[in-house]
């Protein structure tokens, strides 16, 4: 008999050789029907792998990330089989699951695959899936494996096998298809009910441009047709909301090849938007006891040698800047923390003067390969809404709660209501991985977990996910399209205070090390605005909109009245403008809709006579004719309902 420990901590006994699927069946038939993947003692196994020793077993369904990975990877086998049938002589390479779906890299003997070929591949793959073929793993010797692929003239698989150790090589068979594979499959192909080929792209073998270029076929699959339909609708919506497209349409930012890739240029409307976001956070930070600091964009190389950043990132980042003086080198600032440590170091502090909270909208530069750059989400220069808190270990719990409060305030004011949190703690079995005393780690981890509980966060604890220098809490925000974004990390750090020899005088008159907290609710202004654009589709919360209202005079006769309306709106701090072009009101409305301006104020004969404005909301709702005062109240009420004071 073997002892199997389940995630709830219960231990059950089974005969040696029992499979994960049989374990599921012993718990309930319903569970067994949904199980598509499993992990045994931390290693992914098949649902039909015989378990031969005591250990911990986790069973996964489609609803788990691990289940989806097995599902999509298994589909890549089915699609590869379809490609072999449709493109005789095609050479298979690798076919992993990715975040959303899977890909398979193939070397086509001739021609290419294009969008018009997708339906045929899908049809073929789906037919194979319907055959309900079991995925069966089998071992092979290195010699057998090499022989198979040498006979197919497949140099890619041969290369893969040459790097494997004899005795570790496995194949996965289903139907008439066979593939070199480590494992991690669903029970059979019949579970796959919907397959969509999404795109093709060129990809170099092993990512090296000196190698052959292969065809990468991207796809996704689902256990229900309905789920595929929903996914495709989301993709359509995501395309419409792509921040690169919206940023251009709304004239927020641009890029210039001349300035350089990955270096965003903020246009006036985008700069105003950023400024509003910054002022919003500055105001809340001031109330929370932060002090603003400003530091330069470069620092001596030595600074980053001290901080450890040079050792870790130096080789893969922007290279040092030289000066006419020999041996003098500067680096573009990759992080603000070292500068803030030096600010802390300018004078001695007693425990009574802590915490010190230094905040800066600090621009940093990190080299990203050009292929990795993406709109505002992956750039080479960006501004963090950074702050570092230096406190005593006893103050950590309160500081953590304050940072959570601030982060929740920020997310709430920007319309993010759907989020979870993750607390990353040590791997207790590997104490050698972490710096700082065990006592301090325990204190910090408890402080974070208690703070998360006290604030009512929906959170999970991940052990082993902490950085070597301290535990942390991450917020995971779900956007309007159901995608997860990591935002607002709060990170404890025992490392930099050590490296920069930071101290404070304790009540015992001795010198002690402060604890450092890094935090940035937005993360970076660039990435946050990208996320906000995609979450809202450009319909930002009213308080943040570049223009809140546009006045549309019916004809030039009403321009003077329009100007009068504008003046009183401005007196009420409402951002508005007049569209007095010689165009029809219909055309002006259409353009204002395109520009996502929340309110269109139409002024004509009647309005002027009655001293009113006719209000149309973005999206078409007609609010009728009301006084300017009533409109101003409406706008202010709406702003106050989302933008609570901190
Ligand atoms: Zn496989
Ligand atoms: Zn930092």
Automatic annotation (TrEMBL):
<feature type="binding site">
    <location>
        <position position="337"/>
    </location>
    <ligand>
        <name>Zn(2+)</name>
    </ligand>
</feature>
<comment type="subunit">
    <text>Homodimer.</text>
</comment>
<dbReference type="InterPro" id="IPR045864">
    <property type="entry name" value="aa-tRNA-synth_II/BPL/LPL"/>
</dbReference>
<dbReference type="Pfam" id="PF03129">
    <property type="entry name" value="HGTP_anticodon"/>
</dbReference>
<dbReference type="Pfam" id="PF07973">
    <property type="entry name" value="tRNA_SAD"/>
</dbReference>
<dbReference type="InterPro" id="IPR012947">
    <property type="entry name" value="tRNA_SAD"/>
</dbReference>
<feature type="domain" description="Aminoacyl-transfer RNA synthetases class-II family profile">
    <location>
        <begin position="242"/>
        <end position="541"/>
    </location>
</feature>
<dbReference type="InterPro" id="IPR002314">
    <property type="entry name" value="aa-tRNA-synt_IIb"/>
</dbReference>
<dbReference type="Pfam" id="PF00587">
    <property type="entry name" value="tRNA-synt_2b"/>
</dbReference>
<keyword id="KW-0030">Aminoacyl-tRNA synthetase</keyword>
<feature type="domain" description="TGS">
    <location>
        <begin position="1"/>
        <end position="61"/>
    </location>
</feature>
<feature type="binding site">
    <location>
        <position position="388"/>
    </location>
    <ligand>
        <name>Zn(2+)</name>
    </ligand>
</feature>
<dbReference type="InterPro" id="IPR012676">
    <property type="entry name" value="TGS-like"/>
</dbReference>
<feature type="binding site">
    <location>
        <position position="518"/>
    </location>
    <ligand>
        <name>Zn(2+)</name>
    </ligand>
</feature>
<dbReference type="GO" id="GO:0004829">
    <property type="term" value="F:threonine-tRNA ligase activity"/>
</dbReference>
<protein>
    <recommendedName>
        <fullName>Threonine--tRNA ligase</fullName>
        <ecNumber>6.1.1.3</ecNumber>
    </recommendedName>
</protein>
<keyword id="KW-0694">RNA-binding</keyword>
<keyword id="KW-0547">Nucleotide-binding</keyword>
<keyword id="KW-0963">Cytoplasm</keyword>
<dbReference type="InterPro" id="IPR012675">
    <property type="entry name" value="Beta-grasp_dom_sf"/>
</dbReference>
<dbReference type="InterPro" id="IPR004095">
    <property type="entry name" value="TGS"/>
</dbReference>
<keyword id="KW-0648">Protein biosynthesis</keyword>
<keyword id="KW-0436">Ligase</keyword>
<dbReference type="InterPro" id="IPR033728">
    <property type="entry name" value="ThrRS_core"/>
</dbReference>
<keyword id="KW-0067">ATP-binding</keyword>
<dbReference type="InterPro" id="IPR006195">
    <property type="entry name" value="aa-tRNA-synth_II"/>
</dbReference>
<keyword id="KW-0820">tRNA-binding</keyword>
<dbReference type="InterPro" id="IPR018163">
    <property type="entry name" value="Thr/Ala-tRNA-synth_IIc_edit"/>
</dbReference>
<dbReference type="InterPro" id="IPR002320">
    <property type="entry name" value="Thr-tRNA-ligase_IIa"/>
</dbReference>
<comment type="similarity">
    <text>Belongs to the class-II aminoacyl-tRNA synthetase family.</text>
</comment>
<keyword id="KW-0479">Metal-binding</keyword>
<dbReference type="InterPro" id="IPR036621">
    <property type="entry name" value="Anticodon-bd_dom_sf"/>
</dbReference>
<dbReference type="InterPro" id="IPR004154">
    <property type="entry name" value="Anticodon-bd"/>
</dbReference>
<dbReference type="InterPro" id="IPR047246">
    <property type="entry name" value="ThrRS_anticodon"/>
</dbReference>
<keyword id="KW-0862">Zinc</keyword>
<dbReference type="Pfam" id="PF02824">
    <property type="entry name" value="TGS"/>
</dbReference>
């Amino acid at each position: 008999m073997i002892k199997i420990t389940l995630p709830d901590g219960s231990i059950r006994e089974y005969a040696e050789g029992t499979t994960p699927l049989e374990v599921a069946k012993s718990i309930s038939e319903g569970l067994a029907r949904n199980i598509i993947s499993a992990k045994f003692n931390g290693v992914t196994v098949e649902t039909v792998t015989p378990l031969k020793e005591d250990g911990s077993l986790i069973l996964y369904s489609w609803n788990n990330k691990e289940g989806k990975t097995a599902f999509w990877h298994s589909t890549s086998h089915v699609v590869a089989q379809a490609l072999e049938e449709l493109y005789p002589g095609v050479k298979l390479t690798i076919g992993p699951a990715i975040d959303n779906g899977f890909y398979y890299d193939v070397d086509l003997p001739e021609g290419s695959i294009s969008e018009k070929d997708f339906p045929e591949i899908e049809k073929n793959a789906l037919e194979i899936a319907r055959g309900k073929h079991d995925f069966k793993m089998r071992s092979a010797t290195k010699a057998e494996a090499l022989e198979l692929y040498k006979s197919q003239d497949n140099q890619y698989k041969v290369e893969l096998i040459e790097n494997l150790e004899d005795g570790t090589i496995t194949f996965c068979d289903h139907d008439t298809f066979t593939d070199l594979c480590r494992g991690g499959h669903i029970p059979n192909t019949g579970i796959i009910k919907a397959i969509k080929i999404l795109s093709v792209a060129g990809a170099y073998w092993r990512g090296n441009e000196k190698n052959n270029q292969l065809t990468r076929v991207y796809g996704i699959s689902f256990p229900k047709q309905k789920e595929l339909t929903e996914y495709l609708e989301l993709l359509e919506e995501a395309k419409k909301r792509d921040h690169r497209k919206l940023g251009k349409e709304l004239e927020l930012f641009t890029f210039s090849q001349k300035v350089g890739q990955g270096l965003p240029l903020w246009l006036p409307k985008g700069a105003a938007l950023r400024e509003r976001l910054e002022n919003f956070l500055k105001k809340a930070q001031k109330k929370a006891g932060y002090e603003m600091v400003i530091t330069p964009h470069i620092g001596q190389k030595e600074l980053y040698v001290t901080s450890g950043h040079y050792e870790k990132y130096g080789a893969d980042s922007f290279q040092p800047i030289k000066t006419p003086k020999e041996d003098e080198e500067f680096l573009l600032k990759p992080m603000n923390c070292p500068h803030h440590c030096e600010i802390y170091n300018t004078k001695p502090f007693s425990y009574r003067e802590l915490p010190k909270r230094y905040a800066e909208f600090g621009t940093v530069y990190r080299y990203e390969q050009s292929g990795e750059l993406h709109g505002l989400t992956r750039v080479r220069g960006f501004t963090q809404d950074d702050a570092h808190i230096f406190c005593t270990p006893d103050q950590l719990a309160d500081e953590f709660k304050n940072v959570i409060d601030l982060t929740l305030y920020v997310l709430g004011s920007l319309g993010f209501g759907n989020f979870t949190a993750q607390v990353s703690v040590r791997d207790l079995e590997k104490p050698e991985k972490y710096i700082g005393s065990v006592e301090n780690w325990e204190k910090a981890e408890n402080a974070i977990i208690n703070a998360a509980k006290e604030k009512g966060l929906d959170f999970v604890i991940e052990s082993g996910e902490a950085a070597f220098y301290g535990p942390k809490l991450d917020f995971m925000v779900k956007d309007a399209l159901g995608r997860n974004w990591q935002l607002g990390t709060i990170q404890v750090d025992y490392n930099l205070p050590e490296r920069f020899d930071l101290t404070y005088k304790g009540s015992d008159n001795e010198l002690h090390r402060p604890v450092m907290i890094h935090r940035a609710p937005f993360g970076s202004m660039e990435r946050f605005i990208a996320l906000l654009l995609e979450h809202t589709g450009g319909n930002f919360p009213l308080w943040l909109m570049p223009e809140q209202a546009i006045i549309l005079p019916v004809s030039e006769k009403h321009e003077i009245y329009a100007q009068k309306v504008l003046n009183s709106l401005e007196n009420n701090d409402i951002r508005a403008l007049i569209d007095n072009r010689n165009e029809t009101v219909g055309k002006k409305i259409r353009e204002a809709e395109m520009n996502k301006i929340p309110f269109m104020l139409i002024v004509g004969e009647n309005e002027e006579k009655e001293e009113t404005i006719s209000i149309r909301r973005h999206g078409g709702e007609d609010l009728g004719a009301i006084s300017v005062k009533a409109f101003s109240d409406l706008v202010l009420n709406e702003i106050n309902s989302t933008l609570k004071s901190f």
